[in-house]
Structures are given as structure tokens and as C-alpha cells.
Predict the 3D structure of the following.
Amino acid sequence: MRGDATFQTTMLSLVTTDDFIPGDHPIRRIKTVVERTLTKLSPVFAQMYSHRGRPSIPPEQLLKGSLLIALYSIRSERQFCERLRYDLLFKWFLDLNIEDKAFDASTFSKNKQRLLEHDVARQFFEAVLSEARRKRLLSPDHFTGDGTLLESWASIKSFRPRDGNGPPPGEGRNPDVDFHGESRSNATHASATDPEALLARKGPGKEAKLSFAGHVLMENRNGLVVDLELTQATGTAEREAALEMLGRLKRRRRTTVGADKGYDTKDFVTGCRERDVSPHVARKRRHSAIDGRTVRHTGYGVSQRIRKRVEEIFGWMKTVGGFRRTRYRGLDRTGLAGYLVATAYNLVRLSRLLAHSKTVDVVA
């Protein structure tokens, strides 16, 4: 029997947003970890705002919103605020009622500097890591380092001579620029849109783009990101960032770090040994800095096999997390977004690990 469409709207309802979220939805496990970590950061949030004046949007909601942007591949903060008007899952994750209005997209930009000044994104990232450490999900001894290029928001047309003697642009909003016969390099040119972005390419024969360099340090047990660094895209940025992240590790015994052939240089291998780290780096065919005392151990082969999982991190951050091209200008704001996307990745991994394993809490 065909049913009839009814046009009578419901006047009163006794349901909440929680009633619409399935009990086995993975976002529930993610929200549990997020709320526990944000509670720990409450003293930091209290220092960010004045005790007088009109109440602002809670920073907890801004951080949760940033996670949803990465988790659900939202293109922009403006699109997120538009979707927040009608998406009940988004409202539930931000602890909003059904009838609550979405906040304006300018709230993100207005609070960005406040988050940068108090280093909130990094502290949030480390608080989530502490939850994984409490569940004994992190390896304290074996790590993998790698880097990738992140396309900047600046157009290649903004890459102009530093002395101002460049070819005149055409007319219109998106003018044509003739670069034929002009030699361009980072030493003589700079982007007018984002001066911190440098011209770089992934390899021989690849096109050069204005980019930043993103670096991660992965623990080898479950593939979680334990550290993140964003730098300018220079030729030595990967090795320098890896040594910097290894120096920040809190460890009690000798550790190992796996890496590809790009790290097989004398300065990187020497730097690792000075930090009491065994460099399990893929060897070059000629002039390798890795000698027989490293490759003879069984652990070297294990590191070479596991190190390829770091590409899963970059793949998720660029495709799902929308971090293939940054939405912001400058190292600081792009680095803040990088920490939030890496935190979202760790939360997805934690959700799956907690669902399929029996973990024991460790009291620090």
C-alpha cells in the first residue's frame, strides 16, 4: 500500500543529537579521547581569554571543529560552518543542541593568533599522544622519519624577482605572465603572496611548485605520529628536521630510526650516532654512509620493512585531511594546521586500535 506524504511539522520533540548517532559509530570513541584530552588543557584555555567582556566561542569547539574538517575532508572553515547548521553529527561532536545556531566562519580566523601564541595545537597533539602512551600503544625504541612537499597557497605567478624587475603582468583578475627566457631561483625570486614558500620539486623531471616541507616521526609499533615539523623546502630540510625531532625524544635507552636513501649522508648518520640513535637508513649503491655494523643486525631489515608505512600517514593527511595544499600563508599558521591534521590521523588510528585490542592503562 502506498503511503501518503505528510506535511505537518513536529511542534515539540524530546530527542537530542545523541539519539541520532549510532552506538557503534567510530566517532564516539574519537570523541571520548578528545574530551578527555581537552579537559587536561582547560588551564591553558583559561589563560587565553580575559575574565571580562563578552563570552566568546569556547576554544574546545574550535579545536573539535578543526578535527571534523580533517576527518570529513571539508574544503574550508566557511563550508564547515555552513554544514554545522544542519549536520546533527557535527552538532553532537561540538556539544550543541539541535536548535543551536552555527558560529560564523570568521571565528576561526579571529582566534588563530590566540591559538598560535599559546601553542595550543602542539599541546593538543601531545595530549592525544599521552592517551596512546597510557594505553601502551607507542613504541619507545623504534621510529621512522620521512618528509614530503606541501604545496603552498601561493600561485607560481606570484614568484617574482626580489628587485622588482620582472615581466609586466597582463590585464584582468588572473593575468597571464610570460616567463619564457627568464631564469628563476629562490635566491633571486620570492613569492609576493607567501614569501616563506620556496620553489621546490619532488624529483628530476617533475614540475617545480611553491611549497613547504612537512616532516613526521612515526613510531613503528602502531604507526602513530609522535612528532611533526614544518620547515621551508630546502635541500637539507628533511635530514635537519629528522635530527631535530630525534633530539626531542624522551627515551631511556638506545633507539633506532628508519629512513629512505635520501637520509644516507654522512652528516645525518653522524648526527644520529651522536644522539645515541642507530640509523637504519636505506643504503645507496655507491658512497653509502651506512657500514656493516648496522646492516648485519636483524632489526635493520625489520626497520626497512616497516618504514614504508610512513607513506600511509602522508597519504591520509593529503587526501582525507586535505593537507596536500595548505589553506594558510606562512610557516606558523600552516604548522598549526599540520598539528591538527596529524592529531586527527592519530585519533583515527587510536579509534581502530582501541576497538580491536585489549589495552591496559598505565599510571604515569
Notes: Strands lie at 142-151, 159-161, 189-191, 198-200, 209-219, 225-232, 255-259, 277-281. The chain has 13 helices and eight strands.
